[in-house]
TrEMBL record:
Keywords: Iron, Metal-binding, Oxidoreductase. The keyword Repressor does not apply. Signal peptide: none annotated. It comes from Paenibacillus xerothermodurans. SUPFAM superfamilies: Clavaminate synthase-like. It comes from the Bacteria. Transmembrane segments: none annotated. It holds the Pfam family CsiD. One of its GO terms (molecular function) is iron ion binding. This is Carbon starvation induced protein CsiD. InterPro entries: GlaH (IPR015038), TauD-like_sf (IPR042098).
């Protein structure tokens, strides 16, 4: 599948590493125009003033057109895909530019949730040789198992964005992705008596997460007449052997599924996934004393139906 928009400022293709993902390639000229349009904006301003984040999105729409905004939404809502990659085409290596671009993209989709780990609408975290954290997120030399995001907070998480900001001396560490419809055992586990069991999801014992209460939900649920899933082995608290075995069998099945595939994300590129039917994780890195990777995360909700659309042209600041 190849699609060109009317002014050829972007092209949409099937991702080269995963047939379900779409990759949006932006024209270099349009990327430069966007960066110039937002160069006066500071990260502090974006963090402190929520409407400035939508201003970034408006600038993106002004340059690439409203069609791109709708295409990104359509991809995420399309059960056969539900994910895309997009980046700044090596037109900058400035982390502030990366954050501005990612924020413009997410505000095409909806509104990011408050990230308790960082205290902002986004989080940045590093993976390196040594680690003293209290979760597997930063442990470089082991596989980070498949999971969905946001299941331990009391707000919906419709989508998840991950963007690579910096990387040095990294071999391995590819993103591991599983679309539910590629999981051979989905029907078996989603029809199990424990599929609708209400589990306790609690990270209050992990100081890095900055959460203080638990939430309670089932593992499987229906959305848009299709099976969806919430899963995170580190914060799910079974109450007996049967519940624990069910969860462990789910994890082993997904980790060994032929549908679980790695993709490599270049620096300055991001991936956005529908969090209801995609699971993600990370391959282990090869040991290296100088390993350093920094990622950014944003996760949030889709814009509500009936919300006002951005105008095609919004006056510039004077």
């Amino acid at each position: 599948m190849t699609h060109f928009n009317m002014i050829e400022s972007y092209e949409i293709n099937v991702h080269s590493q995963h047939k379900r993902l779409r990759h949006i390639e932006l024209s270099n000229q349009a990327v430069k125009q966007f960066l110039q349009a937002v160069e006066h904006m500071t990260i502090e301003r974006i963090e402190y003033v929520p409407f400035e984040r939508f201003y970034l999105s408006a600038r993106l729409q002004e340059i690439f057109g409203s069609a791109l905004r709708q295409e990104l939404r359509d991809i995420l809502h399309d059960r056969s895909s539900g994910g895309f990659t997009i980046g700044l085409e090596e037109q900058t290596d400035c982390i502030d530019d990366y954050i501005k671009f990612a924020t413009a993209v997410t505000h095409h989709l909806g509104v990011p949730n408050h990230d308790a780990m960082s205290g902002k609408f986004y989080a940045r975290f590093a993976v390196q040789q040594t680690d003293d954290s209290d979760t597997y997120l930063r442990q470089a030399f082991r596989v980070l198992e498949l999971h969905t995001d946001g299941i331990f907070v009391d707000e919906p998480t419709d989508w998840i964005l991950m963007m690579k900001l910096v990387e040095h001396n990294a071999a391995g560490g590819e993103s591991r992705l599983l679309h539910l419809d590629d999981w051979e055992d989905l029907a078996r586990f989603s029809a199990h008596p424990l599929a609708s069991h209400i589990y306790k999801y609690d990270y209050s014992d992990r100081g890095s997460k900055n959460v203080s209460s638990a939430v309670h939900n089932p593992t499987f649920y229906q959305r848009d007449n299709a099976v969806c899933m919430r899963y995170n082995h580190q914060c799910t608290h079974p109450q007996n052997i049967e519940e624990a075995i069910y969860l462990k069998e789910i994890q082993e099945s997904m980790e060994n599924s032929a549908g679980t595939l790695p993709i490599r994300l270049p620096v300055g590129q991001l991936v956005v996934l529908n969090n209801h039917f995609w699971l993600h994780g990370r391959e282990a890195f090869a040991p290296h004393a100088g390993l350093y990777r920094e990622l950014m995360r944003q996760r949030g909700v889709f814009e509500s139906v009936g919300a006002a659309a951005l105008q095609e042209v919004i006056p510039r600041e004077h």
